[in-house]
Amino acid sequence: MPDLAPLKILELFSGIGGMHTALGISEVPGEVCAAVDINSVANEVYSHNFPNIKVLRKNIQKISPNFINKMGVNTILMSPPCQPFTRVGNKKDLDDKRCVPLAHILSILKELVHLQYILVENVTGFETSEAGECLRGAVTAAGFEFREMMISPLQLGIPNSRERYYMVAVKKPLQFTLDIPARDELDDKAVRNIMRKVSNRKTPSCISDILDLPDDSSEYNKFLVSDDVLRKRAWILDIATKTSTKTCCYTKSYTHYIEGTGSVYCPYDEKFIENTYETAKTLERDSSEYLTCLKTLRLRFFTPKEVQRTLCFPDSFTYPPEITRKQKYRLLGNSINVEVVSRLIRIMTNYTET
């Protein structure tokens, strides 16, 4: 392990505290000096889990270099809004007002006198955006060396497809001890090898590892997929079983919208699912027999705790009692995979397994 002074971290776009959680998992010494997010509900959850941290609900573009320098911040961890780089957000890129806070932070990097480390997370597509180009230009101009990676939890053996863009940057003369190729030269095998070199922590490997709600639970029916969804959308559902090693990316719209927002769970094996769908094909979709057939699958949504486990948050991460189930799904959909980020923190600070 390197002789590293504790990180003094400013967590921007902090959400529920995914970066802070990742820091703890990484075992890299450090403290969060302040967390900043405009979302008051996310801030409630953050404060609930980290009651001693200063959580600020303010516009990031109003943060001054002096404010950051006074805290002695040497590390910035941030996950800026992804909507400017997604199809749903119309891919407005830098023309989207939600890019203004990121642009502001990049404009003041040179003035942050203690800053040594930067970690950025965003959606796939950010890497080819104008904002991505501005990020690379700004960190280079501020004297940083950086590495970019596209990583999915699947590459760590975690059963969730959630590919994201990541940048880790260190202020020269600091250097990376791991040999990390350029982003367009990083294949799946290379990413797996790099991530294994910094941690061998045990993570969930299949759906049975993340299940919280027993199949015979009295609460099971509260999470069932509705009859209306079964009638209209059964054929586009991504269904996971106990032995599945992959689920779709969970978004903030999980359970509210169906297509592309996450997987659903079936307590039976794949052969039973296949046979049930084959039978359903022979029935009229508006018939009661069709619905009865599909209901035998007992398809349900994953619970918030199960989604949380998929993102590798510990069970000790909890919510204030007033936070609703819908709010939990939205908050988790906007969060990060903390295991992936914990390993990137170790890469950034040159913590490797011995």
From TrEMBL:
Keyword Methyltransferase found: yes
Entry keyword Transferase: yes
Active site: C82
GO BP of this protein: methylation
A molecular-function term among this protein's GO annotations: methyltransferase activity
UniProt entry keywords in alphabetical sequence: Methyltransferase, S-adenosyl-L-methionine, Transferase
EC number, UniProt record: 2.1.1.204
Family the entry assigns: Belongs to the class I-like SAM-binding methyltransferase superfamily. C5-methyltransferase family.
Protein name (database record): tRNA (cytosine(38)-C(5))-methyltransferase
